[in-house]
Amino acid sequence: METNKEKSLVVFTPSGHRDYFENGSTLLEAARKLGVDLDSVCGGRGICGRCQIEPAFGEFAKHKINAQEENISAPGDLEVNYKGRKEMGKNRRLACSAKINGDLIIDIPPDSHIHKQVIRKTVDLTDLTIEPLISLHFVETEKRVDNKSFDPLLLSLQEQWGLNNLKNEIKEKGLPASNGTYTAVVRDGKSLVAVWPGFKDQVFGIAIDVGSTTIAGHLCDLLSGEVLASAGVMNPQIRFGEDLMSRVSYVMMNKGAENELTEVVQDALNDLVGELCDNSNTNREDVFEITLVGNPIMHHLFLGYDPTPLGVAPFTLFEDKAIDTTAINLSIQANSATRVHVLPCIAGHVGADTAGVLLATKPQQTDGINLVVDVGTNAEILYRACFRGCTNK
Predict the structure, then answer these.
(1) Which of 169, 259, 280, 385 could covalently link to 229 via disulfide, CB atoms 3.0 to 4.6 Å apart?
(2) What is the CATH number of domain 7-112?
(3) What three-state secondary structure class fits 38?
(4) What's the CATH code, domain 204-357?
């Protein structure tokens, strides 16, 4: 692949296909020459909108590319006047219209693939004790309640369930109208976090593993423990680097890039929550607990922390404690009372995902030699023999 001033290097992610192309070529032409999985049914006329791509800008040390905004043509008539059936996504371009003016990194979003990616992550709960922080309490008040006072409800919770001195976290919302029956949602036996008129017997939680390549989630009934839906998506950060160090390098070389990586992964988390709810016919408002794990760099990025200290020795964590925050703080649409629990990272490159493995497999509670191996884009190995334990990565 020889270079000259008339050709530019284009790298397509997540496939990694790359080559030099004549400046002035459209990105659809480049994708077709490389065999990139990019949809298009209108023959490049800008009608179908299926060839949407998302260019990434900045310094990419791994690819030796400095992708500037002027390296891709400005939106032409096809894009400016686009009225296709498929909505144009944020920061996206039509590959049939966008032309190459310089070196580029081009991401092909999952919905622009001809062959849709199927990501399956199964779950085996094995021996699991269900101890949810959230509990439901059905109560009957003396008469129809159609005012905003919580006093009748709080009194009924005290008399019928023995729940005294509850902290009312929803008093600003007011009490919904009812015929005298309610289902109260109580967290940890201490706080009233939601209330519904009538009887309701389900609340939900979601567990999500934010991996370097894929993000997998499972939605379950918090009271029964039954897993009702599982889904996975590609981690959209791939376009900034296939591996963790490439993403850290991108942040180091592009001021403010950590905010960009945080935004795309939080958007992906929100979309995944929506997919899980759709697949299980569940309302987002009925999700009250979310648990997140991930390797240290993913952990820092979805929380909005700077990951660059993890790119150099001594690989210092910004935070190594467990974190409780709200879904709102992570731009996840759910109930206003939804809490997000993030497991702690163990060391510089042994993350919250490994902590989750320890909690699930409990190798420390069994005798003999135990080896737990988590093979992903990154791999962790947990070893325990009798009373001695160590971890290597």
Answers:
(1) 280
(2) 3.10.20.30
(3) coil
(4) 3.30.420.480
